[in-house]
Specification:
The structure holds two protein chains of two kinds.
Chain A (H helix, E strand, L loop, with lengths): L2 H26 L3 H26 L3 H31 L27
Chain B lengths: L1 H27 L3 H26 L4 H26 L2
Helix pairs in contact in B: 1-2, 2-3
The chains are: A mainly alpha, B mainly alpha.
Chain lengths: ~120, ~90
């Protein structure tokens, strides 16, 4: 077991554990908005950590470039996807969990940042 | 070497469980946004599994699939989310 293998395995393990955390959140959390939170943060970071682990374990010249590019793209696109899903849930009037203190807007009123292409 | 392969196999099994969870949420999910979210998560898990398989099987060609899948998955999620938002009106 070289240092490289250990570091790669630790990164892989952390990433997979984060994915499992996102899965648990997807099952257990009470409404769409909180589940979006779980997937966008834990899922995105988990995938980035797994990709970094693969970079450490298997550093070919092209593999490093491709994987680092994929990881960077993930860091940018996963939060945007999570935001889009949350906005879609709000616009389709998905119900809030019963413990929500302040449902954000009166019913049917589109929020700010929603004035574009629809 | 055996230890390394065992680590990768355990990680793949955990990812398979995540995929089952995503499938359950896509079937059950009370709202359409839940289903889009489950599909998005399933795609993330699949990309993870492909990256792990590239190491496990020693085929670096699979890594290109990860890069393409990143972009396609993002576009699919955004398109589905807009579909859900439009239908809610």
């Amino acid at each position: 077991m070289s240092v490289q293998t250990v570091v790669g395995d630790v990164l892989l393990g952390l990433g997979v554990l984060l994915m499992v955390t996102a899965g648990i959140g997807l099952v257990r959390l009470p409404d769409v908005y909180t589940r979006t939170n779980a997937v966008a943060k834990a899922g995105g970071l988990g995938l980035v950590l797994v990709l970094l682990g693969v970079v450490v374990l298997d550093p070919g010249p092209t593999a490093v470039v491709v994987l680092l590019l994929a990881a960077a793209l993930q860091l940018f696109t996963v939060p945007i996807a999570g935001f889009e899903i949350g906005q879609a849930a709000r616009l389709s009037r998905a119900p809030f969990a019963s413990g929500t203190r302040q449902p954000d807007l009166p019913d049917g009123e589109p929020g700010r940042g929603d004035d574009g292409d629809r | 070497m055996i230890v390394q392969q065992t680590v990768l196999d355990v990680a793949l099994v955990l990812l398979a469980l995540c995929l089952v969870v995503a499938a359950v949420r896509a079937v059950v999910g009370p709202t359409d946004a839940d289903r889009v979210l489950a599909v998005d998560f399933g795609f993330l898990v699949t990309l993870c599994a492909v990256a792990l398989l590239a190491v496990r099987l020693g085929t670096p060609a699979l890594l290109d699939l990860v890069l393409i899948g990143t972009l396609v998955g993002f576009l699919a999620t955004v398109a589905l989310a807009r579909l859900v938002a439009r239908r809610g009106r």
